[in-house]
């Protein structure tokens, strides 16, 4: 095998895409900062029990594992930064009030999320700790939509769900933990025949309610249908009330999907996914995950979102850039001053190193510095 080939689902990011992704990262971190979110940078590796605490089997299967040569303990390369930020909030910051945190960094997946997904996403996200109300869910969703607009993505829509509905049905129906896990898998895959087979042995009320979940998708009117066809359990009433309030106060386009259980193993309430026109897969995911902090010994309500900048770059528009300026390789103090001034203004100035005159076109320089009447000026090369 040629030694320049990369493993499956890994890729080099080339210019100008790499520059665009880095510009997005900086722009979004500044957006988060002015909203009061403080940046944290967790390590790439942690002891496995810390990295996977409270996250469920799904994250376990996506985590690369290795033995620490210093301690002999098992370590993992992070597949998701959210549990790490929950640990930081619980044990390092240890604040009593509301804490807003953000992050940006690579994660590694032993298994890709989808056929075309990278196994090395560049994950960026924001999270609120210490507030259990709908207000923080609204804030984090609005911040997500602002983040997408900052990346040039227009027309995004949020799909809202609530894992409390599925959990209440399984708990009230006394569904075995193993069966519950299998039910989650078929619902996530929208496998209707599989769902019918798996629910055949359950009691009538639970069976019919679970089979109804994939049909409960659409605008906010779906919530009235859900109230009609689902059992009148207090947990389900509370979940539907949360979704009703979110859809009523959102001020942006939302739809409902009560079978959306992504992140079910550590989400505890409202979940949401952002979609853009022309893309079948969600561009960002988020929701409430109060139980992650509990797993670290300090129960703190939390909500947040994350997205992959590499994935976003597949379809987001790449803005045209102003061509660079070619500068001669001359020893001239006036030329040096001019080059420094242009670069301080953000202009790209490339020095024309001798011996490569035949490859100047590869530099992408549309303009050049020329000495006109003893004064250096920028002029077109065309």
Descriptive notes:
With 382 residues, the chain is an alpha+beta fold. Helices cover 37% and strands 21% of the residues. It contains 14 helices and 16 strands. The strands form 3 sheets. The protein has a 9-stranded mixed sheet, sandwiched between helices. Helix 1 runs antiparallel to helix 5 (134-150), helix 6 runs antiparallel to helix 11 (234-249) and helix 7 (177-188) runs antiparallel to helix 8. The longest helix has 18 residues, at 17-34. The radius of gyration is 26 Å and the shape is elongated. The mean pLDDT is 91.
Largest beta sheet: strand ordering: 1-5-6-12-11-10-7-9-8
Could you give the distance between the termini? 44 Å
Order of helices and strands: HEEHHEEHEEHEHHHHEHHEEEHEHEHEEE
Helical proportion, percent range: 25-40%
Beta-strand portion reads 15-25%
Mean pLDDT: 91
CATH-defined fold name of the largest domain: BirA Bifunctional Protein, domain 2
Instruction: Give Rg in angstroms.
Output: 26 Å
What is the H level of CATH, i.e. the homologous superfamily of the largest domain?
A: Bira Bifunctional Protein, Domain 2
Oligomer: single chain
Q: How many domains?
A: 2
Query: Total helix count?
Result: 14
Q: Topology of this structure?
A:
Blueprint: H1 17-34, E1 38-39, E2 45-47, H2 48-52, H3 57-61, E3 64-67, E4 74-77, H4 82-93, E5 99-106, E6 122-129, H5 134-150, E7 157-162, H6 163-172, H7 177-188, H8 192-198, H9 204-212, E8 217-218, H10 222-229, H11 234-249, E9 254-257, E10 270-275, E11 284-288, H12 290-295, E12 302-308, H13 309-312, E13 324-328, H14 333-344, E14 349-352, E15 365-372, E16 375-380
Parallel strand pairs: 1-5, 7-9, 13-14, 13-15
Antiparallel strand pairs: 2-4, 3-4, 5-6, 6-12, 7-10, 8-9, 10-11, 11-12, 15-16
């Amino acid at each position: 095998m040629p030694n320049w080939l990369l493993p499956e689902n890994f890729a080099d990011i080339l210019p100008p895409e790499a520059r665009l992704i880095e510009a997005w990262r900086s722009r979004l971190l500044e957006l988060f900062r002015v909203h009061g979110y403080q940046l944290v940078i967790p390590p790439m590796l942690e002891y496995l029990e810390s990295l996977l605490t409270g996250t469920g089997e799904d994250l376990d299967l996506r985590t690369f594992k290795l033995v620490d040569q210093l301690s002999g303990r098992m370590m993992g390369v992070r597949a998701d930064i959210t549990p790490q930020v929950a640990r930081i909030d619980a044990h390092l910051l240890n604040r009593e009030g509301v804490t807003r945190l953000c992050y940006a960094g690579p994660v590694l997946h032993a298994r890709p999320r989808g056929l075309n997904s990278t196994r090395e996403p560049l994950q960026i996200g924001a999270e609120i700790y210490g507030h259990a109300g709908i207000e923080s869910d609204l804030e984090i969703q609005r911040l997500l939509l602002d983040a997408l607009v900052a990346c040039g993505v227009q027309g995004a829509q949020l799909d809202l769900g609530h894992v409390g509905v599925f959990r209440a049905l399984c708990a009230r129906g006394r569904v075995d933990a193993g069966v519950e896990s299998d039910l989650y898998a078929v619902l996530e895959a929208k496998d209707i025949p599989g769902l019918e087979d798996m629910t055949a042995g359950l009691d009538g009320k639970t069976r019919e309610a679970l089979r109804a979940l994939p049909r409960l998708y659409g605008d906010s009117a779906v919530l009235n249908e859900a109230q009609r066809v689902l059992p009148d359990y207090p947990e389900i009433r509370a979940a539907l009330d949360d979704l009703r309030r979110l859809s009523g106060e959102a001020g942006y386009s939302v739809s409902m999907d009560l079978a959306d259980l992504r992140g079910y193993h550590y989400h505890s309430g409202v979940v949401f996914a952002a979609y853009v026109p022309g893309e079948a897969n969600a561009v960002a995911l988020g929701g409430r995950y109060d139980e992650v902090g509990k797993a670290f010994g300090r129960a703190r309500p939390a909500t947040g979102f994350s997205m992959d900048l590499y994935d976003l770059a597949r379809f987001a528009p790449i803005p045209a850039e102003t061509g660079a300026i070619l500068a001669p390789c001359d020893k001239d103090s006036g030329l040096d001053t001019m080059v420094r001034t242009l670069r301080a203004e953000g202009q790209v100035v490339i020095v024309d190193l001798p011996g490569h005159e035949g490859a100047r076109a590869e530099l992408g320089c549309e303009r050049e510095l020329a000495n006109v009447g003893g004064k250096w000026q920028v002029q077109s090369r065309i």
